[in-house]
Amino acid sequence: MTTFGYSLMCEEHHPNDLVANARRAEEAGFEFVTVSDHFHPWLSSHHHSPYAWSVLGALAATTERLELMSLVTCPFLRYHPAIVAQRAATVAAMSGGRFQLGLGAGENLNEHVVGRGWPPAHVRHEMLAESLDVITMLWDGRYHSFAGRHVTVHDARIFTLPERPPAIHVAVSGPGSIAVAAEHGTGMVATEPDPALVEDFELASGAERPKIGQVAVCAGEDEAAARRLAHERWRFAAGGWKVQSELPNPVNFEAATANVREEDVAEMVSCGPDPEVHAAAIERWVEAGFTHVAVVQIGPDQDAFLSMWERDLAPRLAVT
User: Fold this and answer.
1) Known catalytic residue at 107
2) d(CA 311, CA 132)
3) How confident is the model at residue 241 (pLDDT cuts 50, 70, 90)?
4) Is the pLDDT reported for residue 163 higher than 90?
5) Which residues contact 180 (CB under 8 A, 6 or more apart)?
6) pLDDT for 297-312, tens place per residue?
7) Predicted confidence (pLDDT) per residue in 258-314, tens digit
8) Is the pLDDT of residue 320 over 50?
9) Which of 26, 31, 67, 107 is catalytic?
10) CATH no., domain 3-221+241-247+274-316
11) Does the annotation mark 125 as catalytic?
12) pLDDT score, position 136
């Protein structure tokens, strides 16, 4: 059976609202929440981008049963993997083991800010693999040093650890990232409901592991207004991952999406008041083989979707 989650989009909401939304999602019956980990938002219509790990700490303290997940953190350039290992261990300990670490090879939008450049994808995959080695190594509670091609650790130990190490899910988009996820990850994360990604990951990993996806919806009473809002807030995704990962700032996303039409976004995002339309969009991910599907509601009116979830979508999707 598919597990359903709720996505906290840091780029659209004040951190206090994110915490309140997560508590409402827990009441609505969701099994997990994901938190985006960005330095910049994508568009000027996104008015926030708080520090994801502060939000995760607050969620650990204010929720009771929700699994918590970063979706996703790049563990190099802007961060160092030893620090990611420490903060992930802390959130897992604070939450009673409810935290799972989502990792990826990053986006220029967030990582360029520290002035260390933006390597090509194959180099980022090398950096991600080394970072994963460091993180899992440090979770054994002993002192370690590491000298890789890209990552160095000198005599480090993490003292506060959860009872069990967090699961690690790695973002995939093609053969290079799938290879890293299969070798180093507990599961995979994807941003498109592509059955081929699921099949290739399962073939490479040789085991049944979690496959996590995220679907965007824009629920609201007025379909036309929902379509306009989706275009305003979600058109950054129209170019696909190869574009998303390379542009450095919101102004570049504004320019790159200037000719994206409302109908283009409506093809990617289910909009309006009809729960059947949203259910069909979510079911595409289930049919593609994803074991975990997180839903992000676009815009300020989160309760429109959460109420629809309780009333219509959870029964339709056989959520128990």
Assistant:
1) yes
2) 41
3) confident
4) yes
5) 125, 128, 129, 132, 170
6) 999 999 999 999 999 9
7) 999 999 999 999 999 999 999 999 999 999 999 999 999 999 999 999 999 999 999
8) no
9) 107
10) 3.20.20.30
11) no
12) 98
Cβ atoms < 10 Å from Cβ of 221: 10
Helix axes 81-94, 121-138, angle to 10 degrees: 50
- Preceding peptide of 215 cis, ω within 30°: no
Evaluate if pTM is beyond 0.85: yes
Residue by residue, DSSP assigns 133-158 as HHHHHHTTSS-EEEE-SS-EEEEE--
Query: Which sequence spans correspond to the domains of the chain?
Result: 3-221+241-247+274-316
Q: Angle 175-184/195-205 helices, nearest 10 degrees?
A: 40
**52-62 and 81-94 helices cross at what angle (nearest 10)?**
20
Supply the pLDDT for residue 319: 64
Query: Looking up tokens 């994963």, which residue turns up?
Result: 132
Joined tokens for residue 107: 């986006």
**Which residue of the set 38, 169, 184, 292 is catalytic?**
38
Please state, rounded to an integer, the average pLDDT across all residues of the chain: 97
Nearest residue to 35 via CA among 59, 75, 69: 69
Cα–Cα dist 26/11, whole Å = 21
pLDDT at 306: 98
Identify the H or E element spanning 272: strand 270-272
Is 217:295 a contact under the CB 8 Å cutoff?
yes
